[in-house]
Automatic annotation (TrEMBL):
The keyword Lyase applies. InterPro entries: Ala_racemase/Decarboxylase_C (IPR009006), DAP_deCOOHase_LysA (IPR002986), De-COase2_C (IPR022643), De-COase2_N (IPR022644), De-COase2_pyr-phos_BS (IPR022653), Orn/DAP/Arg_de-COase (IPR000183), PLP-binding_barrel (IPR029066). Coiled coil: none annotated. One of its GO terms (molecular function) is pyridoxal phosphate binding. The modification N6-(pyridoxal phosphate)lysine is found at K60. It catalyses: meso-2,6-diaminopimelate + H(+) = L-lysine + CO2. Homodimer. Residues 31-386 form the Orn/DAP/Arg decarboxylase 2 C-terminal domain. Its EC number is 4.1.1.20. It comes from Rubritalea profundi. This is Diaminopimelate decarboxylase.
Length: 432
C-alpha cells in the first residue's frame, strides 16, 4: 500500500498535488511519502512482533538524510555498506550501535571508522576480511564485533543481477565452509563473534526461497550459538514490492481483491513463513529491508519535452534520463508510468517508448507500452522509484542530480535541492 493516488483529476502524494510540485520545483524530481515510509516500517516491525527482532533499514536503497532521520525516529537500525553510509546515519541522528556493516570490499579507513564509532557488528563476507578486521582492531587496541555472511546456495528466483544467495555469486562464505571459517575466526584475538548473517537476493515476490533459506540456515545458527555464544541471526532483506500494477496496489481494496494465494508477498506472509524456523533459536533476529521500505514510497516526476512519431514507433522524450533512474537500463526494471493529469474515459491509449535525453540506446523507461497519450509539456510520474532510484543517479552527460522532495500530509519540503551545473564543475574549475 502507498499514498499516491488520483484526486480531483490530478495525481497526489498524500494531500499534495504533484502538478503543483512539478511546477514549483521543476523536473526531474523525486518525491517521497512520509506516510508510506512510516507505514512500511511499522507494518514489518509489527509482523515480526512474535520474535526478539530488530529492523535494520538497508541504507543503500535510499540514503537521503531526511529519510534516515525519519526511520531513526521510528526506532530503526541501519544496514550499511560503506563508511560513507555510516557517516550519513550518524549525520541523520541514527545510532551506530544499531548499525551492521555489510559488503565484500571494506577498506582499512572504513573499518577503523566503524570500530571507533562502535557499530553493532561487521558482517564479513570472506575469511580474508575477518583476518583483516582482526588486524585493524588489533592496531587500534580494540575488539571488533564480527558475523560472517553465509551463502546458503538458495535460488531467490529473481533477476540475475540482484540474486546473491547462490554459490556462483560473489557474496558470503559457502555453506559447506562456514563452520570451519567460524572455528578459525574464533581463534583470533581482536574480534568477538557476535552473529550470523545471510541475504539471498532482492525483489523476491515469493516467500518460498525465504522459507527454504531460513529452514536450511537456522540449525547452523543454533550450532554457532552453542559453540561461540553468538547473539543474533540476520536473515537479510529482499522482500519485494509490486511494480505492476503500482498505482492500483496503493489501496487496501486492491490487496483484498486478491485471494491469499494470489496476493503478492506481504510483510505478514513473510513473517508467517520464516518465524517458525527462527522463534526458538534464542537469538535476536535482524531483518535488513531496503526496497520494501522505500520502493513504493517514491516517484520520479518528469516532463514530456517532445513527441516524435517515427516510422515504426511513437517516442515520448522526457526530461528524466537513465542517469536519474537507471533501473530499467541496469536490471530491466519495470516502472509504471502515469500522467499527472488523470486520464479520462475518452483518453486514447497508444503504444509508445518513453525515452530520456541521454545519448544511449538503453536510455528508455518503457518500450512498446500502451499508455494514455500524454502531450508535450505534460508531467508524468514513474512509480515505485523510491528505492535504488536517486542513490544510483549520476552526472552522466553533465546533468545535475534531481531534486528530492518529502511530502508529509499537506506539507512538502525540499530535502535535497536540484544540483546545478556550477556544483558539478566547481571541483574541476578549482583544479584547472
Ligand atoms: C542490498 C542489501 C539489502 C537490502 O536489499 P533489499 O532487496 O533492498 O531489501 C539487505 N542486506 C544486504 C546485505 C544487502 O546487500
Amino acid at each position: 500500500m502507498h499514498s499516491f493516488h488520483y484526486l480531483n483529476g490530478s495525481l497526489h502524494c498524500e494531500d499534495v498535488n504533484l502538478q503543483q510540485i512539478a511546477e514549483e520545483h521543476g523536473t526531474p524530481s523525486y518525491v517521497y511519502s512520509t506516510a508510506t515510509l512510516r507505514d512500511n516500517y511499522t507494518r514489518l516491525d509489527q509482523a515480526l512482533e512474535g520474535l526478539d527482532h530488530g529492523v535494520e533499514y538497508a541504507v543503500k536503497a535510499n540514503s537521503n538524510l531526511s529519510v534516515l532521520k525519519l526511520l531513526a525516529e521510528l526506532g530503526s537500525g541501519f544496514d550499511i555498506v560503506s563508511g560513507g553510509e555510516l557517516q550519513r546515519v550518524i549525520a541523520a541522528g541514527g545510532d551506530p550501535a544499531k548499525c551492521t556493516f555489510a559488503g565484500v570490499g571494506k577498506t582499512r579507513p572504513e573499518i577503523e571508522y566503524a570500530i571507533r564509532q562502535g557499530i553493532y557488528c561487521f558482517n564479513a563476507e570472506s575469511e580474508a576480511e575477518v583476518t583483516f578486521i582482526d588486524q585493524v582492531a588489533g592496531d587500534l587496541g580494540l575488539i571488533a564485533p564480527v558475523a560472517l555472511r553465509v551463502n546458503p546456495n538458495v535460488d531467490a528466483k529473481t533477476h540475475k543481477y540482484i540474486s546473491t544467495g547462490k554459490s556462483e555469486n560473489k557474496f558470503g562464505v559457502d555453506f559447506e565452509s562456514i563452520e570451519a571459517a567460524y572455528e578459525r575466526a574464533s581463534k583470533l584475538e581482536n574480534i568477538t563473534l557476535r552473529g550470523l548473517q545471510m541475504h539471498i537476493g532482492s525483489q523476491l515476490t515469493d516467500v518460498k526461497p525465504f522459507i527454504e533459506a531460513a529452514e536450511k540456515v537456522a540449525p547452523l545458527a543454533a550450532k554457532l550459538k552453542e559453540l561461540y555464544d553468538i547473539e543474533f541471526f540476520s536473515v537479510g532483506g529482499g522482500v519485494g514490492i509490486v511494480y505492476s500494477p503500482a498505482l492500483a496496489s496503493g489501496t487496501a481494496e486492491w490487496w483484498e481483491s486478491h485471494t491469499e494465494e494470489a496476493r503478492p508477498l506481504t510483510p505478514e506472509k513473510y513473517a508467517a513463513g520464516v518465524i517458525p524456523f527462527l522463534k526458538d533459536l534464542g537469538l535476536k533476529i535482524l531483518v535488513e529491508p531496503g526496497r520494501y521500505i522505500a520502493g513504493n514510497a517514491g516517484v520520479l516526476l518528469t516532463e514530456c519535452l517532445y513527441e516524435k512519431k517515427g516510422a515504426a514507433k511513437t517516442f515520448k522524450i522526457v526530461d528524466a534520463g537513465m542517469n536519474d533512474l537507471i533501473r530499467p537500463a541496469l536490471y530491466e526494471g519495470h516502472h509504471e508510468i502515469v500522467p499527472i493529469k488523470e486520464p479520462t474515459k475518452v483518453t486514447a491509449h497508444i503504444p509508445m517508448d518513453v525515452v530520456g535525453p541521454i545519448c544511449e540506446t538503453g536510455d528508455f523507461f518503457c518500450q512498446n507500452r500502451d499508455l494514455p497519450d500524454f502531450a508535450e509539456g505534460e508531467y508524468i510520474a514513474l512509480l515505485s522509484a523510491g528505492a535504488y532510484g536517486f542513490v544510483m543517479a549520476s552526472n552522466y552527460n553533465t546533468r545535475g542530480l534531481p531534486a528530492e522532495i518529502l511530502i508529509d500530509g499537506a506539507s512538502s519540503k525540499v530535502i535535497r535541492p536540484r544540483q546545478t551545473v556550477e556544483d558539478i564543475l566547481a571541483a574541476e574549475i578549482a583544479n584547472l
